[in-house]
Design goal:
mainly alpha
Length: 173
């Protein structure tokens, strides 16, 4: 039996994913740590331990231990934030967005990596989890730091491809 975790063995119906995966790995739009951090965010969001391990092997030469820990920090915080902030902009009974969140988020500032890189990883999680408020907040922050529209679009494409790959791995029999 073929190992689906080898990209060349992805099912025929996922050929577009396989080709897109190869394409995004070979582009030079994002720095390696920016790109591969988004890979790990997508894998973590899949909640598939085998896929997470596959991606960790793919990225092991591109992220330091500090960067790996910061990706986990971004994933951890954003897993909480996307739920809360999606609630604040969806709930119509009261303006909850005017209230303090009262959620600890110190990892946003104390994570050991450059702020811009961490913001990119947070945007990736926001895209995967579909929180409009978080997407806009992180996109605006990245734009204010000089990140280009093509770089932001690339984060969205990477997030889409890795998330879809995680879905295929999880659902493939």
């Amino acid at each position: 039996m073929k190992n689906i975790f080898e990209v060349e063995n992805f099912p025929d119906y996922a050929k577009d994913l396989k080709l897109n995966y190869s394409k995004i790995k070979n582009e030079n739009i994002l720095e390696n740590n920016q790109l591969y951090g988004c890979f790990l965010i997508g894998a973590l969001a899949s909640k598939n331990l085998n896929f997470i391990e596959f991606i960790k092997k793919e990225i092991k030469d591109y992220l330091s231990d500090t960067e790996m820990n910061a990706v986990y920090t971004a994933y951890s915080i954003m897993s909480m934030n996307v739920i809360y902030y999606r609630f604040t902009h969806m709930a119509k009974g009261y303006d909850y967005s005017s209230m303090p969140a009262n959620l600890r988020m110190h990892g946003m500032m104390n994570n050991g990596v450059e702020k811009l890189v961490f913001e990119m990883w947070c945007l990736s999680a926001s895209i995967i989890y579909g929180c409009e408020k978080c997407i806009n907040a992180h996109e605006n922050e990245l734009k204010s730091e000089g990140v280009t529209s093509i770089q932001i679009q690339t984060i969205a494409r990477v997030s889409a491809v890795i998330s879809a790959m995680g879905n295929i791995v999880r659902n493939h029999n």
